[in-house]
Amino acid sequence: MKFETVLKGHIVSPGEDFPGEVGICNGKIIEISKTKGKLDAETVHDFGEDYILPGLIDTHVHCYSNPNEGIKRASSAAAKGGITTFLDMPYDLPAPITNVKALKNKIDIINNESVVDIALWGTVPKENGAEVIDELAEHGVAGFKLSTFETDPYRFPRIADADILEAMKKTAKKDLVIAFHAENDELLNSYIRDAIAENNLDPIYHNLTRPPVTETSSVIKLLDMASWTDAKLHIVHVSHAQTIDYINWFKEQGVNVTAETCYNYLLLSTEDLKKYGPKAKINPPLRKPEELKALEEQLFNSGIDFITSDHAPWQKEDKEIGNDNIFKAKSGAPGLEIMVSLLFDYLISDKNMPLSRFAALLSSAPAKRFNLSDKGSIEKGKDADFTIIKNNAPWKIDENDFLSISDISPFHGHTLNNHIEATFVRGHSVYSHKNGIADKAIGQFVKPDNV
Ligand SMILES: [Zn+2]
Fold first, then answer.
1. How far apart are CA 419 and CA 401, in angstroms?
2. Phi, psi of 374 (to 5 degrees)
3. Residue 170 belongs to a domain with what CATH number?
4. Residues 50, 54, 55, 61: is their CA dihedral positive or negative?
5. Which residue, 311, 346, 369, sits at the end of a domain?
6. Percent of the chain beyond pLDDT 70?
7. Ligand 1 center to residue 84 CA distance, Å?
8. Which of 133-143 are b and which e, b meaning 16 or more Cβ less than 10 Å from the residue's Cβ?
9. 127, 162, 325, 410 - which has most CB atoms within 10 Å?
10. Alpha-carbon distance 144 to 157, whole Å?
11. Which pLDDT tens digit goes with each residue over 186-220?
12. Residues 364, 220 share a domain
């Protein structure tokens, strides 16, 4: 048979990688060959020795925390960074995704503007929030994100324990993930009050006012609640190895829980917080170098299920207000455009992680957890989503060149040894290193298959 498109390169499929080719028709993977020159097609993309990975998935992105960003910019940044599907967080400005009207409006924007595929998180209002879960679930959210820490009383509230338990029961019935930003609001607010009273405003106080216990004590509570409700619990942005120890123990008891860390916690430490100040202010905070080592060990011992960017597209003015007082700067940093290449250098080139494990952390594990069964691996019948990486092709990160509206990064000036050569979504080339972002935005809203 003649395929619409054939991709040739070094293919990374579950459990193995080999030089070969993939045949595509109607946006789907139809054939995989372990020898080159076997599959015939109208269009052939020969990537030589480059790696053809399954389309990579980032389950933690904040398009509208900064409304200057939006879907078009964030999805272009994703395509350039080798992300073919992302899950967008619900804490949008001006209003969070707590009702069907807001959800439908966001789905329309995605179907009109997005360059890559996007699934959506929903969330609940501060009071009696669990009421909105069934309706949002029926309209296709991929999961619910809640917080034990109050970033904003309306948009990103702290949810009380009774409402958390109720939300866990309801999401369990729908077989949907319930994810938490887990920091102990009471503890860290008390530490921040003390620091400000004593005029301790240097960047390092962002770390010192959020010691590891502010994460672990919050996660322990959620693990316990999940054990009583059969919730499909997910802990976002784990920053500390002891959190993973607790998660592992509850996993062994049969609790349905997964954990992610973000690329920043694997690559940056308190040394970077001191050096870069507000640009390196993220929640939870960067940890000490020895704590970073311990987190890395958890990753290599399979204690971490996937890695995300927690892309927060802040601009210079959002960070510079914190130059003399770290508590005034916005928390978060961009990541869609640089995470994959940074992780490839660190995990594959430096630490010799097998390519198939890398693909599991960034594609098959999140696809499975969120029931996105068309995504996640290079196998027959799956969507033809691919991330093509060219290794040994050095370039320097420049925060002023991002497709995202964000123009800050603690990685500004960092030299990478690989770049994203091309990105394919359902058989369409949405980005190439040579030609940039494709003119036509073909991205779509993606629902989990259990809806
Ligand atoms: Zn986040």
1. 15
2. -80, -10
3. 3.20.20.140
4. negative
5. 369
6. 100
7. 19
8. beebbebbbbb
9. 410
10. 14
11. 999 999 999 999 999 999 999 999 999 999 999 99
12. yes
Looking up tokens 């949810």 gives 159
The answer as to whether 451 is a domain residue is no
Tell me which amino acid residue 347 is: L
DSSP secondary-structure letter at 344? I
H or E element in which residue 387 lies: strand 386-396
- d(CA 62, ligand 1 centre) in Å: 7
d(CA 73, CA 331): 20
Query: Is residue 408 situated within a structural domain?
Result: yes
Q: Is 24 in the same domain as 83?
A: no
Between the CA of 28 and the centroid of ligand 1 the distance, in Å, is: 31
CA of 339 to the centre of ligand 1 (A): 15
The verdict on residue 212 lying in a domain is yes
Q: What is the pTM of this model?
A: 0.98
The rounded mean pLDDT for the chain is 97
Question: Average of pLDDT values for 402-430?
Answer: 98
The CA distance from 275 to 259, in Å, is: 29
Residue 451 confidence (pLDDT) above 90? no
Residue 55 is given by DSSP the state P
Ligand 1 center–CA 263 separation, angstroms: 12
Q: Ligand 1 centre and the CA of 61: distance in Å?
A: 7
Spacing, Cα 89 to ligand 1 middle (Å): 7
Residue with tokens 């324990």, as numbered in its chain: 161
The residues facing 420 across adjacent strands are 389
**Is there a contact between 171 and 133 (Cβ–Cβ < 8 Å)?**
yes
Quote the ligand 1 centre to 394 CA distance (angstroms). Answer: 30
Report yes or no on 131 lying in a domain: yes
Please name the helix (run of DSSP H) or strand (run of DSSP E) that holds residue 233, with its range, or none: strand 232-235
SS3 (DSSP) at 227: helix
**If you count them, how many residues does the chain have?**
451
Q: Which domain holds residue 130?
A: 56-369
Which tokens is 322 given?
Answer: 């914190």
pLDDT at 394 over 80: yes
Domain end residue (candidates: 338, 369, 400): 369
Reported as a pLDDT band with limits 50, 70 and 90, residue 36 is confident
H/E element, 99:
none
Q: How far apart are CA 102 and CA 155, in angstroms?
A: 13
What digits encode the pLDDT tens for the residues 43-54? 999 999 999 999
